[in-house]
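Students often ask what a holo structure prediction actually looks like on paper. The answer is less mysterious than it sounds. You provide the chain, you provide the ligand, and the output is a string of discrete structure tokens encoding the 3D arrangement of the protein together with 2'-deoxycytidine-5'-monophosphate.
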Amino acid sequence: MYISVALDGPAGAGKSTIAKRAAKELDYIYVDTGALYRTIGLAASRKGVEPVASKEVNNLLDEIKVDLTFNENGDQAVLLNGEDVSGLIRTPEASMMASKISAIPSVRAYLLDLQRNMAKTHNVIMDGRDIGTVVLPNAQIKIFLTASPEARATRRYKELCEKGMDVKYEDILQDVITRDYNDSHRETAPLKPADDSILVDTTELDFEQSVQKIISIIKENI
Ligand code: DC
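The corresponding structure tokens follow.
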């Protein structure tokens, strides 16, 4: 029997960095499901397909193959038709495209088995928006990680600046607010805490404190 930790929450709450570290310490696999939506967004951009429910999107899903792989350090790579696109999906444009494409029910259905199969074969910390509510409703541990929009925008801004990207804080904050709205107002699998999830607010916590909080919640509940 494998352990599943569902880690949901809005963009920029620190889910990925915190979960990656926690997964390493616990020897679990960290699964970043946002990368899957970003990859489908990239496939749509490349083909000039609009991110709205349509026959074109469904045809695109029939044509592409999305895979997750993990190296010996447990780091995830996402493949689009065999091409490693892990770096290409990390731009603000890709974020916005992912937010739009993830509202399409056929896209969400397409990714469901891939995500569930990961949890059937590994101990996982799975990071997303609907992991505790839809993908893994029977996860032993459900955590909803959040922080204020300003704290989240500041973190993302620093992250992108460190990567040498020329971005404005105000644009990032606006992106965070728009994505929160899109993610929590869509009809299919909106972002919301599962009834049985534990709420963790990282606005006032630094990275180490957040990691230790998540690890202690996991240890207390397995
Ligand atoms: O976590 P992220 O920022 O990489 O996610 C990119 C987009 O994908 C985000 O706008 C919400 C969406 N997403 C989703 O709808 N469901 C998930 N399980 C993961 C991400």
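The chain has a mean pLDDT of 95.
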